[in-house]
Amino acid sequence: MRKPSPPAPAGPAKDEPGWRNLFGHCVARKPRSDGEQSRERLLRSAIRLFAEQGYARTSTRELAQAAGANAAAISYYFGDKAGLYRAAFAEQSSDPLGNIALFDQPDFTLRQTLQGFYAQMLAPMQQGERARDAMRLWCREMLEPTGLWAREIEQNIRPEHEAFARVLARHLGADADSDDMHRLAFSIASLALQHMVGADVIEVLRPQLMATPQAAETWLGRMVDYALAMAEVERARLHATPTIDTAKDQHEEV
Q1: Domains of the chain by range and CATH?
Q2: For the residues of 145-194, what is the DSSP string, one character each?
Q3: pLDDT, tens digit only, all 254 positions of the chain
Q4: What sign results for the dihedral spanned by CA atoms 72, 74, 79, 80?
Q5: Which residues neighbour 194 within 8 Å (Cβ) at sequence distance 6 or greater?
Q6: Taking the model in full, what pTM does it have?
């Protein structure tokens, strides 16, 4: 996924956050040539099969047959099975600097920051079943690591998380490297992770919440509201005058 320049700041209205416009800045796929289509079929099949079976239990022959290709095509486009696995795993990865630019802008309000943060996290999920297979592959990599997940954490997740913690600290007037800001950043991100890894559960328990683009946009708008509430609770806690009881509790924690 490639990110262009950051979008213009969104308006302050709660009910019209412009999710489709924000997602448009995150996802852009061009028409593919015949050769690229062959590569794409291999990639799609690989994402699904690796997610279902894992790297070790998926053969090169099986990958080629699922894509309607021959084994030589894997060598031509990806080098070998390991190269195809790396490409499949990287399907959901993106440039962290582009992602950060979507939420770290000096003139953004906290609401706009949160809109941009959730947009860059959830944009890949707009690709439907392909995105879900890619997320299943990530979960498979966590359970059966090949080293790619550790690299993803260091190269992509860490810089985005640390940037988000700094932006939250700037809005709340807090220490950018405090445990409080990192705790808040993880908690806000967890709201989006429910969509990313729990979509199958949502479809079973409450399918109407994600059944239409409008329903999904409504939930995303609420997600920003929930995150704002979390941030405001943290702001109040940070700037509250300690009472005798809270001072005692803080001393006992130390």
Answers
A1: 33-91 (1.10.10.60), 93-240 (1.10.357.10)
A2: --SHHHHHIIIIIHHHHHHHHHHHHHHHT--TT-HHHHHHHHHHHHHHHH
A3: 334 444 444 443 444 455 556 655 565 555 445 568 889 999 999 999 999 999 999 999 999 999 999 999 999 999 999 999 999 999 888 899 999 999 999 999 999 999 999 998 988 777 778 888 999 999 999 999 999 999 999 999 999 999 999 999 999 999 989 999 999 999 999 999 988 888 889 989 999 998 888 888 898 899 999 999 999 999 999 988 776 555 555 555 55
A4: negative
A5: 202
A6: 0.80
